[in-house]
Amino acid sequence: MHTMTSREYLIVTLTIVFGIHAVDANARSWDIAVAIGRRIEFYSKNYSIAGRIEIEEADSLAGLVYDDSTDTLFVSDTSANVSVFSIKLSENNTKPLLLRNGRIIGLAFDDKTRNLFWSDGSQGLIMRMHVPLNRLPEEPVILHRIHGRNLHGIAVDSCNSHIYWVNSDKTNQCIERSNFDGSERITIIEGDLFEPLVVAIDHAEGKLYWTDDGEAVYSKIERSNLDGTERELVTRISHQQIVYMAVDRDTIYWTDRVRKSIWSVPKNRADYRPDFAPHQWFQQGNLNGIVARDNARIITDCDALAKEREMKKAAKVAELFNNLPTSTTEQSKSTTEKSKYCLNGGHAIETDATCRCKLGFTGKHCEVELCHNYCLQGSCGIDRSNGLPTCKCSGTFVGPRCAIDPCKDYCLHDGQCSIQNEKPVCKCKYSVGSRCEDLSNTTKVCEIYCAKTEPVSKNLSVIDCRCDETNKASAQMVMIKEHNEYKILIIFGVLTAVLIVIVIVLSYYVNKLRRRPYNQRENIFDAENCCNMNICETPCFEPNLSTAVPERKGIKKEDKNCLLNNMERLSW
Question: Is residue 107 packed enough to be buried (19+ CB in 10 Å), middle (13-18) or exposed (0-12)?
Fold first, then answer.
């Protein structure tokens, strides 16, 4: 007779009590677990199915994490009345862990502190809940409120007590980190990101992995150290949308929503190609959360992991320096070659696979200067708390890289601009208004160039310019400028007056000449001379002279009148 194993007993119990239906009881051999719809399926590394459970109370399972110390799965649901389920695989116990609470997309768990972390995409929250072994879970605690409310992936670095999460908001695409209590929040990865969705921790090698859903048809998987340094591209894929990802010692796994498939690619390849074709080893249903069992198991001993990483680095360094000459005669040359390996004052340690760079430099060979061309209008420095470049802007420039000058063309009429609370503020000289746009204060103009103003009497006030040494030059320049202007006006006025006088004089004489009377005697002589000429254009007339009788007065008067008439005729 067949004896039921503990695993089979668990599956049967779950089926009867909690409505979880088993397909294969041999779930102990699983390496990869995947959430699909309302069920969880288990697979081995040879891509064969190892077990399956279904939760009838669930609707759309999403995030999935595994606690190796208690053999427990935690899974979130984005549509059901229960937000988080707890399935303890080694016992006949499964239960709703958290009732409806937002829209939980990503899950992460730390077995040392028994803290469950999640990202709430509908409320833009990073949450934490303590899950004791023998007591009910405590009330959830809000760690962070994220602007944009576009959260997805979240991961835990148990050895260093850090949580990582992805912000996919279009205005601030980045990967951030903080301590378990929410303190020391910093940005780890920013720049060259379009829509990061997933983040995962490789505990074996101390690496941070993330995915970026590209603008075109390409998506990519990248990685870096846990502090964000040594960022590199792992693989680039096309026509996929990676929604969840898991990493173990050798392989990267992810679920693809476009083709509804599980894909895998080797984590470290000697023939590195960014367009390496991944392996498609499953295709079915609406795939979501995925977890690698080995990656969860190894974090129980962080000291052993650290020693293992040090041994790997030492092996790489030994392989590097074994190719360099080490004889006594060539020892100086060996030292020179080692110094070339680490640049910019970096120190190569034979027990370490990477260079120990000076503050402000990074890269495998310390070849990248963080401050190079970073601050556009200011001085660059390195923040010792996180090793990142920071700018001290000069003048009125602001911004993370000192690229913005809000004071440019802001203050009018020689107003002095300054920055207060990242906004331009004007200090006016001789005008008023928020931008010194109103030129109404003429007294202030004088005060700029004069020491003081004094009234001559009670009823009369004038400006008494008594310049001190500080404004003497300015006052002199203004006085010279005003004097030159007055001089030009005076000259112009004088010239205008002279021209007017000349015009008046000329007009007077012209008018006088036109009204001058004729000389009668000259006309008579002219007529007489004309009559004596051989050719004369003017007809001449002989005067009708009569022999005058001196005794008779009337005859004398008549002769005079006749003479005058003849003169008139000659004038015509």
Answer: buried
